Protein: EAL domain-containing protein
Organism: Asanoa iriomotensis
Amino acid sequence: MESWSYGTGVALGEDVRYAADADFDAVLTGRLIEPVFQPVVSLADERPVGYEALARGPKGRFHTASDLFAAAARAGRSAELDWLCAATASERFREADVPGMALFVNLNPDTLATDPPDNVVEAYLEITREREVVLEITEQSVMRQPARLLDAVLDARNRTARIALDDIGADPGSLAAMPLINPDIIKIDRSIIQSRSPSSWAVSQVVNAVLDEAHRRGAQILAEGIETREQIAVARSLGASLGQGWLFGRPGPLPHGVRPSEHHLARVRPRHVSRTTPFELLAETSDVHSTSEELFGSMAGHIENQATETSDPAILAVNVGDGEYDDEARIRHTYLTNRGIDVFVLGTAVPENLGGRIRGIPLDTADPLAQERTVLFLGSRYGRAAFARRNGSGALDAGTCYDPERVIEAMLTLVNRLAH
């Protein structure tokens, strides 16, 4: 018999009803997770560069990964299960004779935004010290807790782990977050590789964004779901140098005596996360002129108008500083969220709950951002910004920037404010 308890949802702060399940509790308590491994190969020689760890539960209703993680979601214990799967896979991988192979481990963004339980920390730390590890972040909820997620990404990189962004194409809405995550490996979802309409607009949108990111940052593209020789040709035509799928091996035990690929995994250059503000960063390379609040409003409005015209996934961050956030702006931003754009609004008088999918970020009155006004618009292949700061005369020093790399850096200065 199931009983119910209440908790707080991580996405929007809503109350969520969780189901207590004694059978599932026994799976976690007994660590009854059996990892299986699927090869990731270089398409150049079709030999493995590593293995992705996948989870199986005990025989019965929790055996498949989908049933296992569905039960964890119902019980409100998804992160706990995620960390346990990573720990058991790490332990098994350390025991196996697979020299030179990388371990690919799936972790949900919400999991990376939590601290691992004490009983799995040791396995996680040991595997990142001893072996090459690739942390795969699923894309569907990348922007739910961006501050903690990006902190976790930086921590993983400090431990020499690589970052892979998984399931790209399953939900194009996260393409805009790709430059912020700065992945070493971009995994194109099987729905793209197996698409019967590879020239469709939706597929082209994903592929162009991925190719642009890979070209600019030196990331590798990994094609999932390869089951036929023809799909290898499709993957290569999309820029993939790595592949995964039943053609190369189904999930199972780690093999012995593996002949590794001669090709190595890429490692991108980490982005520096500045502890300044958007104005301080952008003013270093952009012209700044004195202007009025009204004229800056026109500059910022021009950036937001461009957001209304885009059909691509994007992120809009608006800092109103110590000014007001009025109903007109709320209506405008609600329209953008309905078009799939993530909208963050910062300000000293901004509440967390702005309604709909607009995310409010309250600022402390002592925060330097209280004296600034900023509009940052970031897509998967472009970036635009209007920025200003109040000067001693009461007017604003303001400028604009259309360099995507600088806009990304400016967006990253806000990450520590996006804790909610």
